[in-house]
Amino acid sequence: MNILIIEDDPRIADFLQRGLRAEGMRVQVARSGAEGLDQARAAWDDHRGGGETTVVILDLMLGDMSGLDVCQTLRAGQVELPILMLTALSTVEDRVTGLRLGADDYLCKPFDFEELLARIEALRRRGRALQTPASPVLRVADLELDRMTMKVTRGGKVLALTARELALLELLMSAPGRLFSRERILANVWGVNEDPLTNIVDVYIGRLRSKVDAGQAQPLIHTQRGLGYRLEVDPAGSAR
């Protein structure tokens, strides 16, 4: 995943850059609004040429110009990258203004890094509509999910899944091999306001596994104890 951070506070920019790179993301940093506009336009041009979508993390209070002006300028120029506005201003009026000018989400400082990751992931999923049109069918080994009909098959056999199980499976299949923490799964499938202490993720993983992997020689849903879940073919060292 590509991330563009537009932030003029070096401490915050460096913290975000280190943390997001540790999560395996490709990160660029713009230290001013003008630099951010140039990099966002370049990222949009790259996307339109077939490149991956870039999620923009935009500070509201920049030294050379307002983050609101940056957002409004990008949207006026038909730059449709997902934008997460990051700011210390937390009034309803501030949030409404940012969203009306084209921001996709709004996160107030101080923030929890895990919540930031969950919001970035949600924006990435929303940004799929920006991607170059591709097959609506997700495939991992002999498991297929048709996102147009939400029909799931394994080895040609139709699997009967509930709406929540489908959402969970789609998330896991959207990035084969990626480890999803329980918190990220909660944020993407149930919403960020769910109690992080609930065991609902484990319950639904168990239900999904019983339908996807039951009776199969090759299990696809794997547990990394204490960290989360991934869907892939026979990862080395994983435990069910």
UniProtKB/TrEMBL annotation:
Task: Specify the superkingdom.
Answer: Bacteria
Swiss-Prot/TrEMBL keywords? DNA-binding, Phosphoprotein, Transcription, Transcription regulation, Two-component regulatory system
SMART domains named in the record? REC (SM00448), Trans_reg_C (SM00862)
One MF term in GO for this entry? transcription cis-regulatory region binding
Chain residues forming the annotated DNA-binding region: 135-233
Annotated OmpR/PhoB-type domain ranges read 135-233
Name recorded for this polypeptide: Cell cycle response regulator CtrA
- Record-annotated Response regulatory domain positions: 2-124
Matching Pfam families: Response_reg, Trans_reg_C
**Upper classification of the organism:** Bacteria, Pseudomonadati, Pseudomonadota, Alphaproteobacteria, Hyphomicrobiales
Tell me which GO cellular component terms the UniProt record holds: cytosol; protein-DNA complex
Q: Which CDD domains does the UniProt entry name for this protein?
A: trans_reg_C
Post-translational modification 4-aspartylphosphate, affected residues: D59
**GO BP terms, alphabetized:** regulation of DNA-templated transcription
